[in-house]
Records
---
Amino acid sequence: MPATVVLGAQWGDEGKGKAIDQLAPLSTWAVRFQGGNNAGHTIVVGDTTLKLHQIPSGVTSKECNLVLGDGMVIDPWVLDEELSRWESLTGEKPEGDRLFISERASVILPFHKYYDSADKVVGTTGRGIGPAYRDRIERVGIRFTDIEEILSDQKMIDETVARMNKQLETVGYNKEITASELSSELQWILDRFGHAIKPTGMMVDLALRNGETVLLEGAQGALLDIDQGTYPFVTSSVVGRANATHGAGIHPGHVTDCFGITKAYCTRVGNGPFPSELSLDEGPGQHMAQVGHEFGTTTGRPRRTGWLDIVALKDAHRVSGYTGLVVTKLDVLGGLDEIKICIGYELDGKPITHFPTRASDVERCVAIYETHSGFPALADEDWISMAESSRKDGTGYDA
């Protein structure tokens, strides 16, 4: 059976969880394949709103197995907090029952957060994501499968601590990590999550070969991709379709659908170029921020807002080849007199229709807009009625 990919098509915060809420009940597995707790999604259970960062959004579908995949960097302490909140809300303890951690995933340790807090360069979330991926690339990071072996070898503990302290010294962090601290941290992880650490790639592959359906959940968005985004103002992992199956531990031939999620306007958290950006202090930009409640799930920082950028969206499609596009927050634009869409740029006075590679070039781009008449703000029931009237016969999906 097929695998379906859900990806952010902008700078993250597009509303991927809303699409996943619709798809998860149709899936028996939901897999996060990259990133860590720098991602954030909001789910609603009854009257309670819950903010999650590592647990897949498919958690709300009780028949759906959950995987923190090979390509992730996982903070076990944050995961413990999330699972505790989920248990207090629902009474369920999914870890080891229907939530599994890839043995190939990397561990975020307190060391990584110490380093990140002392070496902030591009407006990161400070959660140790970049340092954990750096250790992975340098082949010195600790994977979940490595914990038991390291705990049994004091030499490995001592060498790891020496390396960590040397790295902390380079960024001026004045606290040393001890061998006993690292051992205690690793032992806690093993005690807390050992029963949930599994060869998840093989499990998901077997499920697909047995006719089950898999949902691959992306984090962040296309324009934050380490290779294809507005480098260096990007995340530390590959965000696009090509990494979805690799980070899940399955082959790409399983994928039949890839949905790109985009808002009807743009938002961005943190530093980096944003050609269609508007002022948050007045006008449409302020309207989007206030009506759309634009604050980061992970950081709480106000999101920068701007008009929908078709140039950037086409670039995201070029890389990931979306088979479908899901547009969220169209209702936020209700009440504006006019709505603009960015259809091109001027770079140093010359018109272009592609997204530049260099962030410095993107910074100098002046958006070229197409202007449309606005529409009135509608009540929730009016939007529901409109969606129902546009529903395709027999498909169950909105047009």
---
Amino acid sequence: MNLDLAFIAEALLKLLPAVPTTLLLTAVSAFCGLAAGSVLALLRFFSVPVLGRLAAGWVTVIRGTPMLTHLLLLYVGLPLLIDSVAGQLGSSWTSARIPMIAFAMLSFSITASAYGSEVIRSGLLAVSRGQMEAALSVGMTVPQALRRIVFPQALAASVPNLTNFVIGMLHASTLAFVVSVVDINAQAEIVASTNWKYFEAFLAAAVLFWAMTLVLERIGAVLEKRVSRYHRGGVA
């Protein structure tokens, strides 16, 4: 097999327009997943009656089922639900107006909420409960103690896992092509379809993902250095 280096370079340039879509999918799903995951983690951390068990059940179910399954269930089921509700309300609005990327974002965010919850929860468990008790003893409210004492230290302890979490969501974003979202991998297939050079096209896609992963790893390393003081018990 002769490797066409010139086509790899050409494919790299043609894949660049799809990078923003991949980054948008990653950013939205990671942010929403961590936001929802933080709530789930707190419910479990404080053993909130009923809600804590529901949160644990949610995490177990989502982590126990494939990400692709979540995407397909939403892609097939949600439009049916939306169209049914719209029909009962007498609305002419249909699910066809919803862009495919919205289904991918919602599905990825749901998956990310479970994995993000475990990342945040592990960080919370790394903080001594005495920290919370000490904060409450000096007159802080629970929200104040969480915001100023517990969460900064929990996030500091979670930086390596958070970095891996975001990288994982970046790589998982390639599943979006299943619902016709043109991300980097889908664009690679389009580029290769003109001359059947799929190996070179997907190799170019791999190079792009590798480069983005290196950037995320570097950002994670910088953040880890900046927040390492929390591991020594210091609080800003």
---
Amino acid sequence: MALIDGLKNDDKRQMLVADCMNLLETRVANIGGISGIAIKAGYATIKGISPKYCAGAVERLLPQSFAALEPLWNEGLETGDAVTHLTQNRSRTADAIFSVTDIRIEKSTNSTIKGVYSKLRVSAKKHVEEVVPDLAQILDKYAKD
């Protein structure tokens, strides 16, 4: 089953968005240090635009993100375990996600979003790589059925 197939059912898509948002909220809350302060401030700024902005962005980015992750996912299926494959290839997985978000931000007309993204993008890959195992589990949950 293709990853994108997990988005065809509206209820399933909303549960997927909720799980992704839970992962995001948990990760942001648990980041410490100077970068944690910056990420928390940036996240608060984005949520200040609209409390549902992030969930909407996640939902809007899912189709392109799934398409970008599909080759990696399929490699994993060929070797027997897509979750393990994404986890073992965290850098490639993060790069696939950023290939979508970077293009989307480039086209954005919202200066606040562009500013926050550009400030956090430099250090973001490390944080995305750290959540890949959890993200892979979420993807697996919705790729089935």
---
Amino acid sequence: MRIAVIDKDKCNRNKCSFECNTFCPPVRSGKEDTVVLDESNKSVIDEVLCIGCGICVKRCPFKAIEVVNLPEMKGSPIHKYGSNGFRVFNFPTPSKGKVVGLIGPNGIGKTTILKILTNQIKPNLGGENASDKEIINGFKGTETQKYFTELYSSILKISFKPQYVDDIPKVFKGKVRALLKKAGDECRLSDVCEKLGISNVLNSDVSELSGGELQKVAIAATLVKNADYYFFDEPMSYLDVNERLKVSNIIKELSENGKGVVVIEHDLISLDYLIDSLHILYGKKSVYGIVSKQIKAKNGINSYLKGFLREENVRFRNSEIKFAQRKALKKQFGNSVIEWGELEKNYSKFKLLINPGKIRAEEVIGVVGPNATGKTTFMNILAGKIKASKNGLNSKLKISYKPQYLTQSEETVFDFLKKNCDTASDEFLTARRKLGFDSIMEKKVSELSGGELQIINITACIAREEDIYLLDEPSAYLDVEQRVNISRLVQSVLKLNGKTVVIIDHDLLFITYVSDSIIVFSGEPSVGGVSNGPFSVDDGMNNFLKGLKITFRKDPETNRPRANKLGSVKDKEQKRKGDYFVL
């Protein structure tokens, strides 16, 4: 499939001689519709008539045109779900002594690949079924052939962490210790739990655990097995920043000890820090997915953001995901919509101190900090769901709240949205356009994936006539593109109604991309927490990361933040200067 991409921001018909049309061979031979102008006076190239000669690419004075080939349905699929079902083309290469990442949109085949690698699904090579021998021969001459030979001979030992940790209490009733003993080697249990910081919940019932605790228990259940290959499906959901880097280091230790590791993750900072190499998955959601060749970590993530695989000459997205330099951003805010003095909330075993602050109209406030330090309690105080113990907050503002933990029901998505928001509002129509959930409107809420459930709850929160919108961990289970779309949706809603948005999240790339200001929480988890701010994004992140003793640098190619290795030259240099967050 040939595609032509034109950068509409660069294309300027008023300052060129229409070279893309003038020098186009098909146009000159009479096929005048190959290159035309649209209603906005921008060039449009007909990809069917285009012959892919590349003359327009070279002739365009603004370098606004790219013509590339996208190899759709190339060869037989590795696996196909029925005659007209979803299919996956190409396959990743798991390797011992390496952490290999898989990245791509939801619904593109990543979890299918993990299930094939862990022998939960037998690939059918595009037919009804395939024998072990046919599968092994299908990868002849590759490292993957050896992997499947050993997998189907029961030589390999496999350990797998599933995506949805919320389901653990539904399938296991009892104590955490009993779950981990059942999962693997008891002699490894103590060391693994100590590394993950969950020794204190071993005697707790699984049903009592928070999302972050469930995630760490699921990771522990994977690590207590003595396996040759370890597979992790979205291990960072619900974990705070410090926990994400800690888990990353634990997973990296596996590869350093000669184990093979494959990870699916949408948090680009964690993925970048964790992996050695990467496979990008692209295609069309629920239709087909294509696996790229293996790429080095940094190059792979930058290629993913650009939407272009240079090594394979494939453009899989029409636009880049760009991160603007914050110093270049100037935004005017409205008047203060809510102010608070010093607040306290005291429980029997937890104390929260909220220092004075305010939130302005047309402002996005990001809230960062360790788990169990009071961020959600702060949200609930703002939302009026709980009252402060000291100097209560007297606000008559109307507040819309999306909680961290989402519930399911048997109603359809259409009925859910109609009941919970104004489906005729501009905000709803904007969310519908940017998040693209038309295809699931008739599905039951109970049938939705984690990402789909997140999207409809964000929409229900945003598409109400309120003064402040509170979103608690909206990035959970969303892919990179969806997180960017949520960010753009938030900014669009502010332009429409001039209201305010407050967001708690642990994905630092997402929170710095969407926020205008930052509130920082610190303290000892489950004992006490303190809030400070709002600060500017740079000052807030610097304050936050200084407390964690973690430094971030800017990637010069994409402007995205990248975590420095602890103790590296760059890490020491930035700490010496007091620059913990450089963007």
